[in-house]
Structure prediction request, 333 residues.
Amino acid sequence: MFELAPLDTELAAIEVIREVLVHQRRLRGSGCTGRICLRCIRHHRNAIAEAMTRGRTLEFLLPAFPTKSPNPAKVLGPLPDLAEELALRFLESLCERMAEVYPPGARILICSDGRVFNDLLGVSDESVTRYAHEITRMIDRIGATHLGQFTLDEVYPGADHAELRARLTASHGPHPDELRAEVRQGGDLVHTYRGITRFMVEDLSTPEYAGSRAALQRQCRELAYKVIARSRAWDELLAELFPDSVRLSIHPHPCSTRKIGLLLADTPDVWLTPWHSTAVDTGDGRFTLMKRAEAEAAGAQLVTARGRPSHLVLPRVHATVPVLATGAAHHER
Prediction:
């Protein structure tokens, strides 16, 4: 068994957390201070040190990579593309850097929540299945040995897709009346509610939608409650199934909470994710994330790979936009 002296364990735990917090996704006014927040380090240090004391591989959970946005103004299509590949390469490189500090290494389990929410977005279960299968294939193709994927399908074997969601919500979700009352009280949840409503309006503003903007906003306000309820249910289920894992998130979180917000890309919008956007080559093989329509309006051109849309390339004059912070811009063309 791999063993560290107590002092070495303490220092190694701090260094591992620092590697994660370099890419921390923060809320404005979250309370975090400095480039790497010392309060956040202290908050997660003991859990990491305990795993190290036992010589275990460090396990991180990341609910992410659900399915592509159904809005063609944001993405290139329904399947993973270079945006996801670069994010996976970044996560793999993050694990490799942690292994340099702690030889037993680290593993990030991607808890794909596509099946949890897809019906609310108007995305078919078949599309979710294809997306998840392609993520697994992509992990294998890039040779990522520190990444895995877990889905709701594995929790209730034999249940159909609608039943999966119903059982999750019934067993772990909050009561709708309690949730509405909590939103009315204000605080962090009301900001989450408004943000989800805004995203739902954006995602559902597809060419097929024929109603009014006001009607869509009303619909999305109702859907936002269901998204929050299912998100909490998924969160509680994961906490039960993986009690010793360090929790990561693709959303910003306040200082010193049980989740660390992880910034998969350095973009102008900290809420932008690979599945709500497009990878854009800004010049010299460097990438950022942008909504497809915005990139094309700036003159970006489509690049295909393996017979599918892969990413967009901006003219050189636009090469000053923020770039993807993966440290791994390699792409097989």
